[in-house]
């Protein structure tokens, strides 16, 4: 089968950073779906792994987690799916990726793709939707509906992939006041179009901008990028007993300043459930089914902003470079082989 991968970590401008490969088709395990991939999206995790993770000696590493495709075969213990189903999912970081014609994924973390979205539109959603949903409801434990009215969520980096879904989920499923951050006119408008009540500029001090909105202190922060750079400002802006949830990486983080206000810190990694085979593993498939229902009801829109071409090394290199530039809005997708 055709696939895209690499034999050694390289910067994206290296000629062997990503290569077109021919690899054996995977054999599905008892809980797996074997999926013929039709579209994939590219996430920051793809670029981080490509730059740092060496494959096993003599092997190639295939990246890619988000995918939409058609089920070709079922493992012996799979329930709820049939050959021919159109599915979407974000996979697991400890298994071969979805940048391949055929891909094996645990059925419990997959769901039927939104019927009203194209393959490219649907491929933009899984990883960011799982991250945003788990951050909101499993980490911050926000109450659904009117019970969360009167509370404010600050979404740092609202125009990124996770922020773009988080704004929508918070508006559609909770009573939170959503304040997003953006630094350009086009990203500001993107956040407003997705439903943010307010948008402030993360290049400027946060506290005065929040105060100007009548928010001298806020309840919770979703820190989606550059957490270490903004951490002191979060402590300043949060109410006593407020919460911070974060997803990005940093060499170290001093949490001592949280003590005086009894602030809590929550990490969200959407790969945790599949990595550890947690008892609630199927929660990811269930939440993707809910996201699909929201999309089909017109309550959640795809965050696709660019389809760069077919799934091959050339177009994936372009996608990785775009993400590494820090200027991407929403999600970048590749479609077909």
TrEMBL record:
InterPro entries: ADH-like_N, ADH_Zn_typ-1, ER, GroES-like_sf, NAD(P)-bd_dom_sf, Quin_OxRdtase/zeta-crystal_CS, Zinc-ADH_QOR/CCCR. Keywords: Cytoplasm, Metal-binding, NADP, Oxidoreductase, RNA-binding, Zinc. It comes from the Bacteria. It holds the Pfam family ADH_zinc_N_2. GO terms for molecular function: oxidoreductase activity; RNA binding; zinc ion binding. One of its GO terms (cellular component) is cytoplasm. Gene3D superfamilies: Medium-chain alcohol dehydrogenases, catalytic domain (3.90.180.10), NAD(P)-binding Rossmann-like Domain (3.40.50.720). It is found in: Cytoplasm. Its main location: cytoplasm. The keyword NADP applies. SMART domains: PKS_ER. Residues 10-334 form the Enoyl reductase (ER) domain. Homotetramer. Belongs to the zinc-containing alcohol dehydrogenase family. Quinone oxidoreductase subfamily. This is Zinc-type alcohol dehydrogenase-like protein. It comes from Paracidovorax wautersii.
């Amino acid at each position: 089968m055709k696939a895209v991968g690499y034999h050694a970590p390289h910067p994206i401008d290296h000629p062997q950073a990503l290569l077109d490969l021919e690899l054996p088709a995977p054999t599905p395990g008892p809980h797996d779906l074997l999926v013929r991939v039709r579209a994939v999206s590219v996430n920051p995790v793809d670029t981080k792994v490509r730059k740092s993770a060496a494959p096993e000696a003599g092997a190639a590493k295939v990246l890619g987690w988000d995918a939409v495709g058609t089920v070709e075969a079922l493992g012996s213990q799979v329930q709820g799916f049939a050959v021919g189903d159109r599915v979407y999912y974000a996979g697991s970081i400890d298994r071969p990726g979805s940048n391949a014609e055929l891909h094996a994924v645990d059925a419990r973390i997959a769901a039927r793709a939104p019927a009203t979205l194209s393959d490219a539109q649907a491929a933009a959603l899984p990883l960011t939707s799982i991250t945003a949903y788990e951050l909101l409801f499993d980490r911050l434990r926000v109450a659904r509906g009117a019970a969360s009215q009167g509370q404010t969520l600050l979404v740092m980096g609202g125009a990124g992939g996770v922020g773009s879904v988080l704004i929508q989920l918070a508006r559609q499923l909770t009573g939170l006041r959503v304040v997003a951050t953006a630094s350009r006119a086009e990203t500001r408008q993107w956040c407003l179009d997705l439903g943010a009540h307010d948008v402030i500029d993360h290049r400027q001090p946060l506290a005065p901008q929040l105060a100007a909105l009548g928010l001298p202190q806020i309840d919770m922060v979703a820190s989606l990028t550059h957490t270490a750079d903004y951490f002191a400002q979060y402590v300043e802006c949060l109410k006593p007993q407020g919460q911070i949830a974060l997803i990005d990486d940093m060499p170290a983080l001093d949490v001592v300043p949280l003590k005086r206000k009894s602030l809590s810190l929550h990490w969200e990694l959407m790969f945790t459930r599949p990595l550890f085979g947690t008892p609630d593993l199927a929660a990811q498939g269930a939440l993707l089914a809910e996201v699909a229902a929201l999309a089909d009801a017109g309550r959640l829109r795809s965050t696709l902003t660019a389809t760069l071409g077919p799934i091959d090394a050339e177009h994936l290199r372009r996608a990785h470079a775009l993400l590494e530039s820090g200027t991407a809005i929403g999600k970048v997708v590749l479609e077909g082989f």
